């Protein structure tokens, strides 16, 4: 028993020693982890780690090795701690060239290499040579992997002797490596965040400068002013020799339209002819179409073509940076910065700034184009509506064609507009049947020329609805016969829209420009397409009319079809009713009622499809005793199964399609509810014709509604532009008034200051002279002549009155100085930006300027001003604009009080009564509430009726007589308070008692 007992005791002692050793390792590990987490600096973390690990493991060297993945697994030691007597691995900077071949893959998988003796471990010669160079005998290496990517190694070297590495030591180093990896990740994230912060700071500073330029771009409405301001500001920002804006032509040539350049360089704007860059023409905009910039630091070192360098030398440039100007998705032009004196290294932020400015110029160009396009489109829609109305007014094709070519030519300002008709019996030959042309062009109708090459090249395209627009017939690859025919008619530019009749190509609408090439705009092409479509409708109507007439003739020839002929007449009447109205509900109501009586059925209904092919009944006409089928909820019409003997079955309903153009819009349905009915072919045909007319009516009503909606939108836009323009003019007037007041105040101030300053000395000199005179009278005998002059001059009165006169002059000059100061305070021409001011100063200045209107005169007594000023802090505002608000409100209050006095006075005169005393008072109250300044200006005038008060802030609304008010004062005042100062402006009034205006302005503007 004793030997076993000793064995157990030894096991317990050994286990206790292992536990104690593990405990010490855990403490050491915790200490190292705490040191690692105390810092975010990787160098400090590495140094702390290698120092602590070497001391804890009692190793000769501990080092951190980092790989350079781009250099084929080469790397170097970035941190170490080495015992005295051993060489440093840092100083040698040795790279392990054989690492990747043997160990990279293993270390990436997390392998730990523990070598007790490098000479017995079977290492490669290159690896063994490197370790021997560092005096290593035993080696322990743990990988540092970040996101499955090998970053480096943690190396423990034993140089003095071989060493058997314990499992606990390996596990200890592995845990240290895990925490080092976390520290490496945190360090990388910190570095990335710092880089992002630096980039953001640069971007903010750059954006501030760009924002200033953008504000200057957006302020004017004139595109030339925008170009001029932009080029000047960018050249100033980038310190360049020249900044220019280049606009493309449709053929990708172009011209400089604006520039700003330093003194000594030649202008590029106005160069003739157009500048042609063959690369841009061949690539149709090149890289700029893809919104890419292009920079060249030295044109002679950038590998440019000789022709490109020659072109740039004409611009006197040595280096340039360019960015596209996109109008929506289309390339409009280029903004270019040129350095002419020498090459230049362009910075990324400069190119980015140029690109941003280019985008904003594109927006400005787009707005300018949209405004011009909107005006042009309004004229187009007006002309289109006129043509459609003329087409609807007549069923005679010759009249319709003549009206169309005349109106279209005037709208498009073309040299010739003509209608060409094909003869289907002669293989696409044809002739012009109507035209309108200018006197410089020849008529195309007299020649009767046939286009023999049309069918081979263009017929199938026009049959598909294609509109062909040619800017220059000599610049395209067209058949010789086609060019020959057009040249015979003097045509240089050509636009052709097909005229389709029931899906078949009937003819062409031709627009010719004879004098010069012409680049047809999309709106012009769309206009021609719509005109052609309306002519197609007219052709279809003419076709239907001829069909109806033919049917009427056939019915008239057969006596057994007298009833069918009557129905055709009623059908024509129904169609006429459909065409007489553009209101779709009226058309539906008229049509269903007329067709029900026409076919003598019990119900006629119109069913409309939804996009998912469900639908609902939108109109019906039914015989007494039946219920309406018009419902709000969607429904689906069930299909009917076919039978072998379908013609023998009675069908209680029949329906025909209603098409809006090529689109199936709905169904026209006839019901016989009380009994079966066999529908005759002529009844179905009649129903089908009504369905076609309904489709045309729906299409025309939709087109008219769209035209009205667009016209309304354009009218509203034009009204808004007028209002904006008027406000700008009013603002310029007030700015001019402020400058005038400031100038007057400055001019008056100089002589008044001179007089006021000299009055002090004059008073002192006068007092001294009077003392001398008095002393002379008292202490010397006065000669008779002097005594006589004294008596004649009334010296005593002069001695008494002269100081009073000087004092009166002093008071007067002080009053003028106050008025000058008030004028300067009111105008504040040097205070256009936000700044802290005293509100009371502005109110008092305004009152002083209006002082002449407050005094009594022959027409009314004086107006009393009652001021109740609170202690207000200085408030950040636009002082000159607030003074404008005070001037408007106080002037309106004075007008209201004068109107009240005149009204009461006139009433007393009519009643032959003495006019009672009428108090005229204006109250001005200021106080601060909840971080806001509140200003109340009230009067005891006649007040404002509610129907007027609700419109007082509307632009151009005024109740004053013509010539006494524009209706903009209160509107602009409201805009200044609400939009410029983020405050509120309210008005309350009781008729007969007075009016009060309340202004609230936040203190934190």
From TrEMBL:
Coiled-coil segments: none
Domain of life: Bacteria
UniProt EC number: 2.7.13.3
Keyword Transferase: yes
Ranges where the Histidine kinase domain occurs: 743-1005
Record SUPFAM superfamilies: ATPase domain of HSP90 chaperone/DNA topoisomerase II/histidine kinase, GAF domain-like, Homodimeric domain of signal transducing histidine kinase
Family stated for the protein in its record: In the N-terminal section; belongs to the phytochrome family.
Protein name: histidine kinase
Organism: Nostoc punctiforme NIES-2108
């Amino acid at each position: 028993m004793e030997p076993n007992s000793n064995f157990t005791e030894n096991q317990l002692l050994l286990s206790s020693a292992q536990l104690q050793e593990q405990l010490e390792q855990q403490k050491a590990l915790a200490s190292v982890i705490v040191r690692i987490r105390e810092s975010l600096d990787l160098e400090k973390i590495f140094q702390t780690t290698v120092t602590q690990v070497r001391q804890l493991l009692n190793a000769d060297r501990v080092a951190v090795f980092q790989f350079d993945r781009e250099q084929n697994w080469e790397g170097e030691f970035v941190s170490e701690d080495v015992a005295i007597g051993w060489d440093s691995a840092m100083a040698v900077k040795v790279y392990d060239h054989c690492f990747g071949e043997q160990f990279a893959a293993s270390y990436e998988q997390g392998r730990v290499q523990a070598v007790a003796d490098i000479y017995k471990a079977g290492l490669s010669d290159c690896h063994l040579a490197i370790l021997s160079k560092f005096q290593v005998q035993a080696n322990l290496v743990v990988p540092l992997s970040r996101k499955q990517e090998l970053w480096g190694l943690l190396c423990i070297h034993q140089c003095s002797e071989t060493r058997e590495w314990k499992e606990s030591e390996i596990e200890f180093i592995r845990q240290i490596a895990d925490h080092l990896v976390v520290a490496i990740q945190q360090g990388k994230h910190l570095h990335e965040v710092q880089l992002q912060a630096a980039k953001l700071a640069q971007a903010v500073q750059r954006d501030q400068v760009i924002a200033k330029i953008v504000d200057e771009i957006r302020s004017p409405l004139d595109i030339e002013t925008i170009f001029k301001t932009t080029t000047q500001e960018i050249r100033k920002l980038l310190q360049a020799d020249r900044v220019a804006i280049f606009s493309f032509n449709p053929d990708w040539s172009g011209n400089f339209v604006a520039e700003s350049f330093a003194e000594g360089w030649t202008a590029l704007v106005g160069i003739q002819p157009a500048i042609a860059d063959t690369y841009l023409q061949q690539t149709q905009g090149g890289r700029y179409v893809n919104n890419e910039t292009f920079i060249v630091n030295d044109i002679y070192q950038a590998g440019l073509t000789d022709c490109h360098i020659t072109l740039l030398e004409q611009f006197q440039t040595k280096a340039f940076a360019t960015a596209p100007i996109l109008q929506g998705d289309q390339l409009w032009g280029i903004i270019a910065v040129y350095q002419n004196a020498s090459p230049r290294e362009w910075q990324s932020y400069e190119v980015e700034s140029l690109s941003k400015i280019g985008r904003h110029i594109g927006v400005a160009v787009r707005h300018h184009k949209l405004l011009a396009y909107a005006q042009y489109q309004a004229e187009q829609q007006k002309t289109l509506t006129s043509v459609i109305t003329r087409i609807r007014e007549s069923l005679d094709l010759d009249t319709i064609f003549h009206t169309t070519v005349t109106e279209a030519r005037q709208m498009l300002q073309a040299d010739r507009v003509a209608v060409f008709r094909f003869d289907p019996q002669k293989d696409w030959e044809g002739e012009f049947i109507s035209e309108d042309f200018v006197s410089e062009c020849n008529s195309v109708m007299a020649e009767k020329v046939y286009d023999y090459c049309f069918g081979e090249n263009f017929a199938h395209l026009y049959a598909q609805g294609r509109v062909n627009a040619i800017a220059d017939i000599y610049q395209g690859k067209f058949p010789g016969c086609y060019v020959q025919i057009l040249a015979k008619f003097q045509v240089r530019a050509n636009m052709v829209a097909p005229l389709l009749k029931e899906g078949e190509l009937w003819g062409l609408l031709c627009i010719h420009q004879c004098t010069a090439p012409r680049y047809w705009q999309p709106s012009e092409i769309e206009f021609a397409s719509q005109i052609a479509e309306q002519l197609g409708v007219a052709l279809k109507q003419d076709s239907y009319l001829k069909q109806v007439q033919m049917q009427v003739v056939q019915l008239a020839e057969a006596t057994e079809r007298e009833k069918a002929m009557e129905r055709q007449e009623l059908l024509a009447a129904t169609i006429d009713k459909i065409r007489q109205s553009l209101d779709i509900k009226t058309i539906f109501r008229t049509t269903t009622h007329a067709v029900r009586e026409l076919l003598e059925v019990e119900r006629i209904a119109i069913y409309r499809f939804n996009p998912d092919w469900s639908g609902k009944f939108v109109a019906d006409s039914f015989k007494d005793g039946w219920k309406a089928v018009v419902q709000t909820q969607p429904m689906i019409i069930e299909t009917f199964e076919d039978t072998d003997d379908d013609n023998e079955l009675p069908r209680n309903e029949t329906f025909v399609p209603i098409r809006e153009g090529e689109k199936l819009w709905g169904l026209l349905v006839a019901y016989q509810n009380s009994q079966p009915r066999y529908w005759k072919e002529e009844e179905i045909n009649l129903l089908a014709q009504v369905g076609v007319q309904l489709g045309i009516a729906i299409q025309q009503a939709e087109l008219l509604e769209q035209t009205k909606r667009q016209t309304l939108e354009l009218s509203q836009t034009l009204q808004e532009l007028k209002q904006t323009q008027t406000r700008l003019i009013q603002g310029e007037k007030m700015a001019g008034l402020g400058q005038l007041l400031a100038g007057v105040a400055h001019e008056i101030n100089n002589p008044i200051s001179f007089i006021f300053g000299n009055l002090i000395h004059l008073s002192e000199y006068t007092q001294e002279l009077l003392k001398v005179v008095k002393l002379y009278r008292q202490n010397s005998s006065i000669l008779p002549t002097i005594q006589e002059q004294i008596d004649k001059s009334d010296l005593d009165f002069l001695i008494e009155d002269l100081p009073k006169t000087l004092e009166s002059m002093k008071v007067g000059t002080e009053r003028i100085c106050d008025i000058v100061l008030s004028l300067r305070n009111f105008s504040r021409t040097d205070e256009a930006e936000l700044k802290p001011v005293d509100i009371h100063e502005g109110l008092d200045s305004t009152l002083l300027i209006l002082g002449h209107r407050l005094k009594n005169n022959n027409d009314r007594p004086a107006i009393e001003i009652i001021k109740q000023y609170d202690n207000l802090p200085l408030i950040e505002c636009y002082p000159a604009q607030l003074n404008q608000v005070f001037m408007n409100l106080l002037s309106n209050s004075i007008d209201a009080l004068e109107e009240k006095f005149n009204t009461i006075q006139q009433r007393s005169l009519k009643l032959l009564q003495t006019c009672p005393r009428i108090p005229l008072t204006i109250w001005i109250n200021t106080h601060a509430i909840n971080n806001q300044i509140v200003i109340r200006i009230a009067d005891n005038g006649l007040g404002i009726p509610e129907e007027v008060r609700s419109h007082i802030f509307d632009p151009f609304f005024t109740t004053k007589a013509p010539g006494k008010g524009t209706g903009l004062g209160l509107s602009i005042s409201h805009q200044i308070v609400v939009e410029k100062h983020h405050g509120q402006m309210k008005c309350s009034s009781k008729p007969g008692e007075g009016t009060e205006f309340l202004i609230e302005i936040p203190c934190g503007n």
